[in-house]
Specification:
The structure holds 2 protein chains of 2 kinds. Chain A is α+β, with helices and mostly antiparallel strands. Helices cover about 20% and strands about 20% of the residues of chain A. Chain A has one domain: Alpha-Beta Plaits, CATH 3.30.70. By secondary structure, chain B is α/β, with parallel strands linked by helices. Classes of the chains: A alpha+beta, B alpha/beta. The structure holds flavin mononucleotide and iron/sulfur cluster (SF4) (2 copies). Flavin mononucleotide (FMN) binds next to β4 of chain B.
């Protein structure tokens, strides 16, 4: 089984500057207050590198990549 | 067994001696109790209806004698009274459940976390603990939950017990992984624990639910019903409605409005409500009298829920405030005509985007308002437009 990845945002850390949406508009848009809304489902193969950048470039390290299965 | 059987509930707390005479002491338990919980289908009564056995298993696996049991008596939902009543009238049933959890999970501590305004419940629980023999008594400490809606959320309780701040934290780590003092922690509602105490006894079954009936009903307050009883039957047992209702709020502020004709027929148990896309939440069933304005009522509750956001997550803090403001504009007749569409869109966008489920509960409630009170919202909006024209 290939590992599917998804983006998760730590909602408490995120301060809504929206850098992630600029980097990855295919998967992230901003709500009316500037906070990210993530597209559902796993990250398509061809966007993985950009997703990794979004993770690294978030100024408060609020975004992470997770395996796409859920616990509890 | 009913939780509230035995002496008159209004007579105050049942003493330990009376409790033991009536029900026997905490029974000897084999390791099979988690299996018993699982077979009983017991689900949490604090709001989320999460399977109790799953939580216990997760803590048991990690405990190594270090686990902590948090008895959740915060009861932050404004209309709910059942947790307070249970602690005030049957404190030993709650404590039995907590001590059973401590034994099965090999816990080191039991922390009783009670809403700071629930003073008689706290007094009853303090007296009850003092009546218990050691080593049980020595396990217990008390903590007063701040009187905020989110203080009763699992992660907020743990944050408060660790650092004195009753706001939710980011999960994972989940409480069963890292809770009070970093130890695997079980946070369990007081009613759930009372059902455990009943289940653990021979022939016991968790077959009842505690409800709080509110609004236009003859005997408002706590009612214990067998699972599967309809809402209509529960209302009859409470003396019937005093005013014809416009809608029934099933599940409190994190619940949903339902048209009365549909509500009366609903069976009260987690499974059948779930099949209807509903939940029992913390067990509040509220009637909205037809004489009240549903839009104003919705706006009031949304303002309350917005003000109870712990203001840590943008979508919850800004989103709920914007939703409450839009509802208020519609109810007061100052909307620009786009607020109804904004409400629909924002409600869908805010869901699932907080660290805890506070915004999810609020928008679920709002979505049911927009659905059940579509006529009234449309009427208010049309009125707004006429005024602004
Ligand atoms: C905003 C919020 C407030 C909550 N308040 C309470 C509360 O006051 N009392 C309670 O028992 N559970 C409350 N809960 C549910 C708890 O997080 C938790 O699920 C529960 O205490 C677990 O016990 P249970 O499985 O026995 O229900 C709340 C949850 C949320 C999201
Ligand atoms: S870049 Fe980071 S802080 Fe900014 S909106 Fe995205 S997740 Fe939030
Ligand atoms: S979702 Fe709302 S209530 Fe929950 S932690 Fe975030 S800001 Fe606080």
């Amino acid at each position: 089984m290939s590992t599917e990845l998804k983006l998760v945002v730590d909602r408490i850390k995120c301060d809504g500057r929206g850098l992630c949406a600029e980097l990855l508009p295919e998967l992230i848009r901003l709500d009316d207050w500037g906070y990210p809304i993530l597209a559902p489902g796993p990250i398509p193969e061809h966007l993985r590198a950009l997703a990794q950048r979004a993770v690294e470039d978030c100024p408060v390290l609020a975004i992470a990549l997770r395996r796409a299965e859920r616990k509890q | 067994m009913r939780l509230l059987e035995g002496p008159e509930v209004g007579a105050g707390a049942e003493s330990y001696a009376d409790h033991v005479r009536r029900l026997g002491g905490v029974p000897d338990l084999g390791p099979g109790l988690i299996g018993t919980l699982q077979r009983s289908g017991l689900a949490g009564r604090g709001g989320a209806a999460f399977p109790t056995a799953v939580k216990w298993q997760a803590v048991a696996e990690r405990s190594r004698g270090q686990a902590v049991v948090v008895v959740n008596g915060a009861e932050g939902e404004p209309r709910s009274q059942k947790d307070r009543l249970l602690m005030s009238a049957r404190p030993h049933l709650v404590l039995d459940g907590a001590f059973i959890a401590a034994r099965v999970l090999r816990a080191r501590r039991v922390i009783v976390y009670i809403g700071e305004r629930h003073q008689s419940a706290r007094a009853a629980m303090l007296r009850a603990v003092a009546e218990r023999p050691d080593p049980e008594r020595g396990l217990v400490t008390f903590s007063a939950a701040p009187a905020r809606y989110v203080a009763g959320a699992e992660a907020a309780a743990i944050h408060f017990l660790n650092e004195g701040v009753a706001t939710p934290t980011t999960v994972p780590p989940y409480p069963f992984e890292r809770g009070v003092g970093g130890a695997p922690t079980l946070v369990q509602n007081v009613e759930t624990l009372a059902h455990v105490a009943s289940l653990a006894r021979p022939g016991g079954a968790a077959s009842t639910l505690l409800l709080t009936l509110a609004g236009g009903v003859a005997t408002a307050g706590v009612l214990e019903v067998e699972a599967g009883v309809t809402i209509g039957e529960a209302m009859r047992r409470a003396g019937g409605v005093t005013e014809s209702p416009r809608a029934v709020l099933v599940g409190g502020y994190f619940g949903s409005w339902v048209e009365p004709e549909r509500a009366w027929l609903l069976a009260i148990d987690h499974e059948s409500l779930r099949r209807h896309g509903l939940g029992l939440g913390c067990g509040v069933i509220g009637l909205l009298p037809a004489s009240r304005c549903p839009v104003c009522e919705t706006a009031g509750i949304m303002r309350y829920l917005a003000s109870e956001s712990s203001a840590q997550c943008g979508p919850c803090f800004f989103g709920l405030r914007a939703l409450a403001d839009a509802c208020t504009r519609i109810s007061e007749g100052s909307s620009d005509g786009h607020d109804l569409q904004r409400l629909q869109r924002w409600a869908a966008e805010v869901a699932g985007r907080g660290s805890c489920r506070h915004p999810d509960g609020a928008v679920m409630f709002l979505a049911s308002s927009l659905d059940v009170f579509a006529r009234e919202f449309a009427h208010h909006t049309a009125h707004n437009l006429r005024r602004s024209a």
